[in-house]
Amino acid sequence: MPTVAPLDLEGHCVAACWVANVPHFALADGVVHRLDNGHKHVEAHDGLLAASLAADGKVLLTGGEDGRVASLAPDGSFTELASIGRKWVTAVASGPQGAVAFASGRTAYVRFADGRLKELAHPRSVEGLAFAPKGMRIGVARYNGATLHFPATDGKPVELTWDGAHTGISFSPDGNFVVTTMQENALHGWKLADGKHMRMSGYPAKVKSWSWAAKGRWLATSGAPAAIVWPFTGKDGPMGKAPVELGTRGNTMVTSVACHPTDEFVAIGYADGMVLAARIADQKEVLLRRAGNGAITSMAWDAEGRRIAFGSEAGDCGVIDIAG
């Protein structure tokens, strides 16, 4: 039976993650908590924060309402990477070769490992950022689509157009597809080889959480009373295919998903704080945590795929050990 080590905090958990195998919980008030031989915390930002785990899993990247971007090491020490004055940093993302991207207003910034800062201006506000899995390429979610930049060069960006407000962006692990979340209850995608569109709709709520399966064959999403898992097994992704539905629970909405690091099953968090795990192949379910306080807002597996860090909108956080 799985065991749960609770951590009761006050405030909305923006990101639950593992930094060098230590569970961290970044809250919206700018404080980052960690469970490392006891409960410790550090004030990362003065005011609201955005957070993202670095690609190597060894530091936590944060940006804040105070205009600062920083990296948090496992020992709790902070290194300031950039400061843009009193501008609210609304998104951060880590990339290859030590690159970091962040956004404020209509500008996306890329900070290279040598400290150089490149500004990428857009006509409307930058809502989401993601680096491609290969090469120095960054995707920006914006109004009416997405823009792909090669920030190390001055080459012309690639514009991917679809009407509506696009709020988040992700590349498939093989780099063949770009998918965005939208302000409406839908996802949109593009096949990069030929620009074909993929419309993934029918959600009763906005998609606020998504996660790629280990081999990139599936994309799990929130936004419905089940985890909606889209197949990316063929050359055209989910076009013309129905998704798999995991962990259906009446009218209780799925609010967070996290795919296992090596196997094709998904941790599913709900609006009532419950957490299940479900296998994609046969939809078999295992209860990991009973209902708690607040909707689950973030979850992450450790590198071994044995423990899950989780956080809720009410600060109801903790670690689930699936081996008990």
UniProtKB/TrEMBL annotation:
InterPro entries: Apc4-like_WD40_dom (IPR024977), Quinoprotein_ADH-like_sf (IPR011047), WD40/YVTN_repeat-like_dom_sf (IPR015943), WD40_rpt (IPR001680). Coiled coil: none annotated. Keywords: Repeat, WD repeat. It comes from Nitratireductor mangrovi. Pfam families: ANAPC4_WD40. Gene3D superfamilies: YVTN repeat-like/Quinoprotein amine dehydrogenase (2.130.10.10). SMART domains: WD40. This is WD40 repeat domain-containing protein. Residues 261-322 form the Anaphase-promoting complex subunit 4-like WD40 domain. It comes from the Bacteria.
